[in-house]
Every structure is written in C-alpha cells, then in structure tokens.
Amino acid sequence: MASIDLAQVTKDVLGAMTTAIGSGSGQVHAFARAEAAKIAVSIAEIGQLRAAGVIDEEEMELHLDVQKNASRAVLMAVKGIGIVTAERAVNAAISVALAAVSTSLGVPFVRV
Amino acid sequence: MMFHESRLYAADRGGPLVILITLALLVTGCAVDLIARRDTETISMTDALRATTNDHLQRLAGETAPACLHEAHRAFYAQEKNDVAALERRVVSQPKNDPTIEQVRGLGSSLASLEELHKRSSASGRCLAMAELSPLSRGIDTSFASILEIERAKPAGSQSR
Predict the structure, then answer these.
(1) CB contact, 8 Å: A65 with chain B?
(2) CA distance, residue A38 to nearest chain B CA (Å)
(3) I need a labelling partner for A38 at 20 to 30 A (CA). Which of A12, A31, B29, B85 fits?
(4) DSSP assignment of B2-41, as one string?
C-alpha cells in the first residue's frame, strides 16, 4: 500500500486553513472598527441632546435602541463573516488533504 | 510483553483502518456549508430599502412644519413596514441564515423606534431636529451596511446540504 506523508499533509492543511482565515479576518476588522467609531459618535450626540433637554428620557431610550441594534448588527456581521471564514478554512483543508491523499495513493478523488 | 504485543497488534490493524476511515470521509466529503449562500434578492431588497430610508431622512432634514410632521409621512412608514416584513420573510426562508435574520429583526426595531420618535416630536408640533436625525441616520445606516457586509461575504452558489 502506498504511504501517506502525514506530516506534509498536516502542514499543507494548516497552510490552507491559515490562508483562508487570514483573508477573512482583515476585512471584518476594518468594517467593525469603522462602524464602532460611528456608533460611539452617535451615542455621544444622544447624550448631548438629553443634556440640552432636546429629548426626554423615553426619547433617549428610543435613540439608544437604534444604536444598540446597530451594534448588534455589526457583531452579527463579525460573527457571520467568521462563520464564512471557518467554512472556507474547512473546505480548503478538505481539498488539500484530498489532493495529498489522492497523489500519495495514486487514486483520483472527485469532490461532490 | 503481552500488553506490548496487543498494542502492536492493534496498531497494526488500526493503521489501515484509520486510513480507510479517512479515505471514506474524504471520498464522501462534500463541501461543508456552515452558513447560507449569498442571496442577490436579499441584497437588492436591502439596497432598495436603504435608499428609500436615506431619502426619507434627508427629506425630513429639509422640511418645515407641517410637511415634516408624522401625519405627512404615514405612507412612507406603512410601505417601509411592508418592505421590512418582506425582507424578513426572505431571509428566514434561507437555511443557516441566523446572523442575517437577527440583523433584519434589529433593523425593523430601529425603524419602529424612528417612527415613534417622529410621532412624539410631531405630537408637540415640531420637526425632528437635525441633531436628532444625525445619530438616527447613522445608526440605521450601520444596520443596513452590516446586513450587506455579511450578505456580500457569503459564498455564492446553492446550498449543498
């Protein structure tokens, strides 16, 4: 039976996963940082509106709800893109492992 | 000695077994889907709703009473509720779409808060001040941007399982 270089396959799989994770994380960090800055400015403005008496307590709560929903939406985007990144990493790892095993054993495998 | 022999025996039999299991997993290894596929309909519905909401907020910023009051904008809020409900139905129909579903529900809640604030200022006969519209506009736009950010990042194609 042909042998499989398990150390090399592990290295290739890890490389594929690291590449997939790296490409997804930079994009989401930049987005989250920009949106968090906007939310911080908005909350400061809401505080000023309340302090100046332009809005009452209940109106402040409604304004803060909008900002809470915005924060949650950003976190959901981070979570979702994290899942997308994990999916890419898992699929990249399967592809690399499949190719390595296929080459080692001389048996062609077809991804379905 | 007996122990070592049995371990060696197990390793001897276990090696090919592990390879066979690995091969079986790899051969049957379809692409793994952890999240919904990209949905162009969700993107276009969100884009359209974002545009009408931005137009509405910009119009409010430029209007004076009575044009700025809630009564004059009832049709917008009614249409918007329908559009958000349609968007929610759309995202709920996609499998493995929990982050987007939560985002759309949050957006619906934010738009309801906007209407409530509009009603309250109108009840006292005043327009929503520019200083009030600014954080509202920014917060609501962040919700739209977040929905689009994740939707565009999702893999294209159809769900394999």
Answers:
(1) yes
(2) 7
(3) B85
(4) HHHHHHHHHHHHHHHHHHHHHHHHHHT-PPP--SPPP-HH
Q: Which residue of B has its CA nearest to A61?
A: B113
pTM: predicted TM-score of the whole model, two decimal places:
0.83
pLDDT tens-digit readout, B48-86: 999 999 999 999 999 999 999 999 999 999 999 999 999
The residue ranges of every structural domain in chain A are 6-12+21-101
ipTM above 0.85, yes or no: no
**Cβ contacts of A79 on chain B, cutoff 8 Å:** 99
C-alpha distances in angstroms, A24 versus A71, A88, A100? 20, 9, 25
- Distance (Å, whole) CA B24 – CA B100: 34
User: Is A35 in contact with B23 (Cβ distance < 8 A)?
Assistant: no
**DSSP symbols for B87-108:** HHHHHHTSTT-HHHHHHHHHHH
The DSSP result for A40-94, as a single string, is HHHHHHHHHHHHTTSS-HHHHHHHHHHHHHHHHHHHHHHHHHHHHHHHHHHHHHH
Q: Which residues of B touch A (CB under 8 A)?
A: 16, 19, 22-23, 26-27, 29-35, 99-100, 102-103, 106-107, 109-110, 113-114, 116-117, 120, 129, 131-132, 134-136, 138-140, 142-143, 145-147, 149-150, 153-155
pLDDT digits (tens, 9 = 90+) for B139-156: 999 999 999 999 999 999
